[in-house]
Amino acid sequence: MGDFPVDTILALIGIVIPVAAFLWEFVIGGRRRLGYRVQMDTPVTGEVEAVFPGVLTQLRRDAGAHMRDLSIVLVRIENSGTSTIEAADYLAPVARVGLHLRFPQRRVVGMAVTELSDQDLADSLGPNSGIGVREDTGGHIGVIDLPKVPLNRGDHYKVLAILQRSEGSGEYPDPVLLGGIRRGRVTETRSRTGVSRVMLALMAFLVLVIVVQFVVTLVEPRPDPLDCASGKLTVVGSSAFEPVIRDAAAQYGKRCTGAEFVFDFAGTERGLDRVTEAGPDPSLITISDGAKGPGYPALLARPLALSMFTVIVHEDLGVTDLSAKQIDDLFQGRITRWSQIGGPDLPVVLVDRTPGSGTRTLFERRMLGGGRTERPHQSCTAIKDTAGTYCDVPVTKDMHKAVAEIPGAIGYSELAEARKADMRIVTVDGVAADRQRAIDRSYPFWGVEYAYSNGDLPGDSLAASFLHYLTADIGAEVLRAHGNEPCGSALIEPGRCDPNR
Q: Entry's Pfam families (predicted)?
C-alpha cells in the first residue's frame, strides 16, 4: 500500500465516528428533546376500573358519550434530552398550548393526568393551564391539548385517556404526540430493556474497524526501526559464546527484517585468524573469550559482556567442590587420582581445550596462574580404550561430550552452556559460579567477551548496529538471560571490560 498511512486513517475513523455519534446524540440532536411513550393501549371488555387510585374521579368526560367500544391509553411525556425545557421553548403558536396528543379513529371521552415526577408540575397541568379535549377532522380524531409544561432533565408526567371508536374497525392506529421544541425535537421513545439499535450499529462499526486494522497489519509490512541496519553479517570465533550470539541475532532479525546472519564458531584463535586474513571487511566479525593478544594489531576490540565459566567433572565422581589450589594441582599433574582429595579410586583424566582456544587461555589465566605443564595433543575419542589421562577438544560441545563419557574426567566450560548440557558443575572454595559474585570478585573463573573487527566499522553497517544492540538494547537482556553482564552496565566498575587490562 506504499506510503499511504492506512492504519492511521482507520484509527482516526475509529475515534472520530464514535465521538461524532456521541455529540450528535447527546449534545446537538439530543440536547433538548421531548419524548413520549405509549405505555398502555388496550380495549375495555368489561367494567371500567381505576388503574391508578383516584383517577376515575378526576376524569374529564364528555357527558353525551355512549360508553361503548371503549379503549384506555396511558401516555408518558418526558424530557429525554440533556437540557431543561422551558415554557418558552415550545413552538406552538397558541398561548398556553404546547403539544397535541392525537388519537386517530377515536374520540376522547375522558382524560386525567395520573403521575407527576415532581409535584411542582401540578401548577402547569391544572384546570386553567390550557389542557383540554377536542375533536379534529370531522370528529374522527380525538385530541388532547397539553400545556407548555417546563420540564427539567428526566422530568415526566402521564396522561390517561378513555377513548371511543369514531370510525373504522380492527386495531387502532398508534397515538401520536405533535409539537415543536426550539433547537430540539419531539420524538417517540421506547423502554430500553436491551442494547439500542444505535449502540449495536456503533459496536458493529468499531468491530469492523478493528478487523480491518488487523488485516492491514498482517498484509502491510511494518517499517524497521530507525536504528536497524540491513545486509549480511558473518560472525565467527568462540564456540563458548555461540548460543548467546545466535539468540541475540534471532531477536535482532525479528526487529530488523533486512538483516541476515551467517555463523561459523570454530574457536577463538581460528576466528581471529580469519578476520585478520580477510582484511578490512565490515561484514565479518569474530567473538573472543578474552583479549586478542599482541599478534593481531589490525583488529579493533569492542567489549561485550562479563561472562561466567565453570569447572565440570564426570557425574559419577560425586565431587561438588574443589579449592582453587586443588584445581591447579589437578591440571598441573600433581594430583593424579581422585582418592587423593577424597574422591573414588579412579585416575584423573584432564580434558583440555586445544591451544588457541579463548576459553583455555582464560582458564590458564584465572585458575592456573598463567602457566601449565605442556602436553601433546591427544584425541578424547582415542584415549577411551587406552586408559589415557589427558586429551583435548576443539569446541565447547566436544568438551561436554568428553567429560560426560570418560570416567574420572574433569574439564571447564562456559557456565550457561554447561547448565544446558546438564553437566556436574563444581563450586570453587565453596563459592558457586554467579554473575554478581564475579562482579564483586568472590568467584574467580570469569572473563570478558569481545567482538573484533578488522579496522573501524561504518556507523551504518549491520555489524555496528548489531554490536550496539548487544549491549544497549534487547540484546543486553539476552546476555543476562545467558548469565552474562553487559559491558557498560552500572554494576560493572569502569575499566573492567578494558581489553588491555
A: PBP_like_2
